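Lab channel / #folding
Pinned by the channel admin:
"Please post every new chain as: sequence first, then the structure tokens as a reply. Keep commentary short and put observations after the output so the thread stays searchable."

First post following the new format, from NK:
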Amino acid sequence: MKSAKHAVAMMVLACLPLVGQAQERVLRGSDITESALIEALTPHADPEGASPGAGPSVRTRSIKVMREPAEQPGSQVAKKAQASLLITFETNSAELRDEAKHSLDVVGKALQADSLAKFNFAIEGHADPRGGDDLNYRLSQARAESVMNYLVGTHGINRGRLKAEGKGSSELLNVDDPTAPENRRVTITTLK
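Reply from TO:
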């Protein structure tokens, strides 16, 4: 009997990392709408009533597992509000293309909406692993800054509300295909 309970407990624990973890959705082209961005970037209270900074909890029959807290308590909202956008660049370039500017025009409108006006945002640039770590970090930083500068210069978003951060190739979205376009993306995360 004891070994059966142990086996069931091990199966539950093995499945826990999979519960509640959805594949991050990358908005692209016509998916990038003002309403989709406002929905993705608006923080929502944790329905479980978890303490601020803690991730969503998972309930089982007799176990309550809390997700790991955010990196810095109070640095990000209780439930991470973010939108990943497929903003593409030419190889080894941080210059915005016309289709990227069109997408960022929608982002600029969304960031000016009343529901998002009180928040600050991190603009994270991501790269695929081609080119080496140092080059990818610098390129992803330049791309994040290019997006930030466009939003500030074209849409009048207060620079103090935006923080550009290059992630290099450290957070691949598609690990099965490292050179996939979704690994060369911009992620906008709502900060407090």
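NK: The longest helix spans residues 133-155.
TO: also worth noting, The beta strands are 26-27, 57-59, 64-66, 82-85, 120-125, 162-166, 186-191.
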